[in-house]
Amino acid sequence: MFQKLGRSIAKRRLILSLPPVARDVMKDGLTYLPLERMASLNAELERMVAQDVPGDIAEFGMALGGSAIVLAKSRGKRRFLGFDVFGRIPPPTDDDGADAHSRFKVIAEGKSTGIRDGEYYGYVDDLFGRVVSSFEKYGLRVDNQSIILRKGLFQETFSPSESDRFRLVHIDCDWYDPVFFCLTSVSRCMSPGGVVIVDDYNDYEGCRNAVDKVLAEDASLLLERTLPHAVIRKRAS
Ligand SMILES: C[S@@+](CC[C@H](N)C(=O)[O-])C[C@H]1O[C@@H](n2cnc3c(N)ncnc32)[C@H](O)[C@@H]1O
């Protein structure tokens, strides 16, 4: 009984730590992020602001746009960049485990359910239009200047320029290939002290292997914690 009470107090604390926008996207069924990950994402956003780390905010893997809305709301005077195919998730590869392949089979057979039994985002006809409308509902205009959405494979839509700098990047794209591509690509444009969060580190073997491989080869990145998701810091020097 005391354990149950303790858990419910801890849950209440996490809910209270969230800004209203994060509570609302969860209530509206726009995000797959469970409460612990949303609270951790928000805490890292607040830390970047408190430490005045320079740079934009980006997300790779938006689905219905829930976590992206939270990130875009906190962009201040900087930009938010969101990347997604805005359609069916591309398949896993031989670098992924049975977990990813069986999940993809369910999706490909048209049997995936969505958030709280709603429509699965990968079966929505105009997902890009749906996400833009959700942004608008939250007072965010996709103007391609301060809020930029790029539709297509990350590998084709993201090629950072010399001047690109990020303070926080959220990588939420499940399988080995996209996670490996995103983490290696953003590493060179993270501000010192900036943070990369990889959502699926504990969910999919391929994602975890991709992160571990990049970290083993890139000494500028430090894995700070792995719960409730991977939090990777760009070293100051
Ligand atoms: C788990 S969902 C993102 C969840 C979202 N962040 C939320 O708040 O619920 C993963 C997304 O990544 C996208 N994705 C995965 N691999 C991709 C790739 N190579 N290029 C573009 N989008 C990709 C999928 O289509 C999907 O929309």
From TrEMBL:
The protein, known as: TylF/MycF family methyltransferase
One Pfam family from the record: TylF
Keyword check for Cell wall biogenesis/degradation: no
SUPFAM superfamilies: S-adenosyl-L-methionine-dependent methyltransferases
GO biological process, one term: methylation
TM annotation in the entry: none
Gene Ontology MF terms in the entry: methyltransferase activity
Keyword match Transmembrane: no
Keywords on record: Methyltransferase, Transferase
Organism: Nitratireductor kimnyeongensis
